[in-house]
Amino acid sequence: MDPFVFKGCVEIRELLGKKADDELKLLELIEEVPVDSIYYHTHSYFLRHPYIAGTYPNDFANWAAYEIRDKILGEKLASVTPKPPKSIEEVRLELMEIIDEHLSSIHSIPFVGYGEPFYFMKSRIIEIPTESSAYTFQEFKESLRKINTSVVYNHIFEAGTRSRRGRSDFAIWLEQALNKRTLADKFEMIDSYMYSLEGLRNKLLELCDEEIEG
Amino acid sequence: MNHENITLKSYKEIAPEGSVDLVYKLAKRLEGRSLLHINSTSEGGGVAEILKRFIPLLNELDIKTGWEVVAGTPLFYNTTKSFHNALQGQKTIFTPEMYNEYRKVTRSNARHINLEADVVVIHDPQPVGLIYKKRKKSKWLWRCHIDISRPERKVWYFLKDYITRYDGAIFSLARFAQKLPIPQFLIYPSIDPLSEKNRELSKREINQVLEKYAIPTDKPILLQVSRFDTFKDPLGVIEAYKLVKRYNDCYLILAGGGATDDPEGLQVLQKVRERAAYENDIFVLDLPSDSHLEINALQRIASVVLQKSTKEGFGLTVAEAMWKEKPVIGGAAGGITVQIINGETGFTVNSVEGCAYRIRYLLNNPLASAEMGRKAKEYTRRNFLIIRHLSDFLALAIESLKV
User: Fold this and answer.
1) ipTM of the assembly?
2) What is the distance between the alpha carbons of residues A161 and B97, in angstroms, rounded to a whole number?
3) Which positions ≥6 away from B71 have C-beta within 8 Å?
4) How far apart are CA A150 and CA A148, in angstroms?
5) Do B26 and A126 touch (CB under 8 A)?
6) What is the count of residue pairs from A and B with beta carbons less than 8 Å apart?
7) In chain B, count of helices (H) and strands (E)?
């Protein structure tokens, strides 16, 4: 049986030099920027907020709500959950549809008054193996407790999205190596986009404890 | 802890779980590679401060890392100081002699500095011209530490000629990015939790500072640490304090420096003193630039820390106070909005009244204030400590070298 090798990650943040001052420009740029930029502002938002989850779970929603002060658009954009197997291109389309529909329902285009423009960026993730690995369920749980939060991100968000496998590395290993199908399904049922990485780790540990207690 | 004794392991208990191990793993990918940092001063200023800690840590990781400082003439320094001001948007006059001197000194530095390294990092505009000596195989990165969101165009075009020859540029905030044909990266600055300004202090050390400046502790203390500069809005802080004082008894400390060699700073300090003249509970401290221990102690005894800037680069005094579990009220400007999650790790405000209201809230809700301080420390631990900075830098070196 192959052990589970815990791998963390570091994100390189690249500035695209493109910015939006109003909602129409935001829409135009969402259509234009590379897919890595949509990934950066939706998925890897969680990597940048490992401890405290922001009010809304992506950069677009937070910008609309707090910089433009358009709470309605903020709420609508916050509802976009980029959970695989939805591709990032599909996420892009969903964001565009929401902004388009919102703009057609109002008379003037909301713009940044006192707030900051939206700066488009993109992500490059470098995967880094850690010293931790697990052969048994007990070892898996113990390592999960100690690892860097980027490991949680890498094995849940990154694994599920970039590879479009849809299932987290944790769930695949629990099912295939340990034959723990029910626990693997419980891992997959977690709405991971509602947690900070630290919160998500605690939730996973809670499920592991329940598994032990039977 | 003695500075010489500080190693990567010293940060293991401080930095987030597993993050020091990630740094070791990242460094492994750079085994056998060499790095070189070049800036304009070995003493004073934030860049020298961070390099002093970075260089030994990188060498400890078995990455051969050098640090060189460019030498210059008075006219060269005058010119690069003007570059610095112009890049930050100040109208500045340049003469052809200044540009010529810059080129001449750059050539001289290029002759004397050994530029052989796999990755060369040039800090700020002073050594930027050295790029003409770049070898094909090495990667050169320009690390810009200043706010260049609205640079003076003439100077920017002069420097842009050099910058576009780099393999990448690194900025501290997204809004500093420019239209450039090279990749631009974002790396936030950091604080060192083991430095004199941030290390844990004993009660005795804190009391010595309080005695030195005759600061009483019988009432809550509001504190702003920053240069006496209009953009830091010290007068706005006094106004906010006066509004608070109608309801809550407290002291205000405005601690800063840089006024002695800065005519504008002197004027602001003068105005601050005038405005505080009849207020017995306001302390205005003009501190020397090496008052790290003093600032550390003041941040630790404060009940609320303010950074009411109206314009700000990154504003690391915010992270320093957050690291000491203080709820910080900051102006909604520049890097402050990156460090403070409004309502969670502190408050961002847009007016004197907003600032006063948040101060009153924190003074009257000590439990909420303590909880906010706790979150602020944790947020700083994960985002603004030197280990995260080191890790970002190593990742970029790996990416640049494609190793």
Assistant:
1) 0.91
2) 56
3) B105, B108, B109, B112
4) 5
5) yes
6) 90
7) 14, 12
Among A19, A51, A144, A151, the strongest candidate for a mutation testing the B interface, having the largest count of B CBs within 10 A, is A51
Q: Give the residue on A whose Cα is nearest the Cα of B25.
A: A128
Tokens of A147: 């690892």
> Which of B174, B112, B186 shows the shortest CA–CA distance to B143?
B186
Work out the number of other CB atoms within 10 angstroms of the CB of residue B238. Answer: 20
The pLDDT tens digits for B133-155 are: 999 899 999 999 988 888 999 99
The token duo for B25 is 């793993």
| Contact predicate A5/A143, CB 8 Å | no
Q: How far is A160 from chain B (nearest CA, A)?
A: 22
Best probe of the A interface among B143, B148, B178, B186, by most A CBs < 10 A, is B186
Helix (H) or strand (E) holding A19: strand A4-20
Residues B186, A51: C-beta atoms closer than 8 Å: no
Q: Name every chain A residue with its beta carbon within 8 A of the beta carbon of B312.
A: none
Q: Which of B61, B144, B163, B184 to mutate: most A Cβ within 10 Å?
A: B184
| Span B218-277, pLDDT tens digits | 999 999 999 898 889 999 999 999 999 999 999 999 998 765 556 678 889 999 999 999
The DSSP secondary structure of B100-117, one letter per residue, reads HHHHHHHHHHHHHS----
Q: What is the pTM of this model?
A: 0.91
Cα B359 from chain centroid?
25
- Residues making up chain B, counted from first to last: 403
Question: Which of chain A's residues have a Cβ under 8 Å away from the Cβ of B185?
Answer: 12-15
